[in-house]
């Protein structure tokens, strides 16, 4: 029985792959919802209701709350009713960063994308906006091809930095901005992690990562035309850390209990808590004692590592006819890499799912 349960945890098991891909389909569908974060969350909740309906004790729902961050707001923004930015209306030309995720039986898939509102083939995106979107897209495509069993993180980080420089952009530096995070059941941030643009402390703390078969990684790319550091805005998305501490304030204890019961180990928005005022008060003590961790913005794709290569299970909406940068990658090694298929087909191997 122990061996059987252990096998279910890896992507060798078709049922696990199915759960990841079904969650990804919901995420991609939900990513089209721009007007209201709450509607995005409801879309995921409604979408998972009938999946594995006959199975017992399978959790289903939101793996990452719907976030819509517009223009200068570059952090994960899932607004509270008291946030004035929450009532802003998207306008043509706005740069919107959208992120959300679904989970089935603890297997999560998170998708993020960047769009320019109103852009089309007749009204393409140009200039700095096109540069930063194209750089992020190509960086994620390159990472997808470099995250393979037997390889390590060094080449991935180096390639991402080169692509960013090709478009006169920078990768964003921050404590919670990771290029790669190993995803496990009930945990979107596993033990293996790579910081995209590490500071000195992170360079000391994070070791070389070796990719292995049957692992799942979230590839998170955040590119900026500025100095590459996120601006400060109020944090509204958190995640339990697993640490313990005896909270002193009654409101904090009530809020933490609600978090534990409703969200488990997955990220959540403060707006999803029953009492917003109490949530804002209670979360402060929880965060100060590391019972929860805050989230910054990032863009993501997810990858399953199998013997045949990498499987991309979430999609973004990049279209080179709509996003037209006048810059390009000229590094021959990177161009050759981007021209390859992320999934390498091998004979006599079990067939894997396509994008």
UniProtKB/TrEMBL annotation:
<protein>
    <submittedName>
        <fullName>841_t:CDS:1</fullName>
    </submittedName>
</protein>
<dbReference type="InterPro" id="IPR036005">
    <property type="entry name" value="Creatinase/aminopeptidase-like"/>
</dbReference>
<comment type="similarity">
    <text>Belongs to the peptidase M24 family.</text>
</comment>
<dbReference type="InterPro" id="IPR036390">
    <property type="entry name" value="WH_DNA-bd_sf"/>
</dbReference>
<dbReference type="InterPro" id="IPR047113">
    <property type="entry name" value="PA2G4/ARX1"/>
</dbReference>
<dbReference type="InterPro" id="IPR036388">
    <property type="entry name" value="WH-like_DNA-bd_sf"/>
</dbReference>
<dbReference type="InterPro" id="IPR000994">
    <property type="entry name" value="Pept_M24"/>
</dbReference>
<dbReference type="Pfam" id="PF00557">
    <property type="entry name" value="Peptidase_M24"/>
</dbReference>
<feature type="domain" description="Peptidase M24">
    <location>
        <begin position="55"/>
        <end position="166"/>
    </location>
</feature>
